[in-house]
Design a protein that fits this description.
With about 325 residues, this protein is mainly alpha-helical. About 50% of the residues lie in helices and about 5% in strands. It has 10 helices and 3 strands. Helix 9 packs across helix 10 (about 280-300). The longest helix has 22 residues, at about 215-235.
Amino acid sequence: MTLHFSIIFNNTNSLSIKIKNDTKYNIYITFDISTKNFLKTFYIPSFKTYRTPFDKWFPKFFNSYQKQFTHINEQKVYNFIKYQIITFLTIELKKLLPISYSFPKINSLQERTTASIKASLHHIYTCTNDEYNILLQNTPHTFHNLTSFYFQNSFKFSPISSNYIYPNLDFSIFKQHQSSAATFTKPFPFKTLKQFAQIAEQQFIQLNSISTNSKHESFFYYTYIKYYLNLAAKNDNINNSNLKNTLQKTFTKTTDPHTFAQIMAYFDIIQFSNTPISELQFKYYQSYLPQAMQYISKKLNIPKISTDLFLPQFKVPEIIPNSLFLLDP
């Protein structure tokens, strides 16, 4: 077989692939790529994006192609073509990247997160020196660590442009050895953090002589949650690890599902999860906690554990209005 690639670049939202072959097993693959969308995110589409048309084409092609061989592995042929598709697409899309990436003017937390992710992807795609690392020594050169680095430094690259006066938030009670020290070994303080966010919003209103706004409270709530999770990871000495290793290490100390659920929430949220603020508490009970149950049951070799035994019907209290378009701190 011989593969022939081509790309149609456009500014629409289409993202498709066309595959055909002739009787001599020339395979013609045409991508329809939105240049505008790629430059907006820097995300290279995964193979899953094109899997449906590919899987529809491949069986008919292979049935004909295999006739020339006595023995041939269908999966290896599938994987070979798949690899060629991914490789070609990746190389071509990287050619569209700007030579350098600079942080734009930022007006919201979501924009700051998006810009940090783009900066991280640009660095990964364009970095050609394996020894070059902008991170601290011994810090793994991973997508998560790079994104965290760019997010933390984004306030230097693109300072806050608003004229608001912000209250000083006191996080000292969450430090180690304090009565409310942040840790994954005790219930997550959703209610307490929300109360802190409400107090911070009231101070914000007084400082700026403005009316209440759900976006303000959402921002302070998210700030407290993220700070609490990061400090809990530091207090519990897991902030330099990864999820898999952390769960395995934790299992040697406890089988408390809430501890595992909070650790899962930490690794999800610090990797810039797109979960809206209003859904964090709901997701904790509907996603993180059930996953924790399943992880524990698997480690203990308990067959088909029912999370309903541990999760009685509940109503998530005090839902915060849905918003990721938050103000910067």
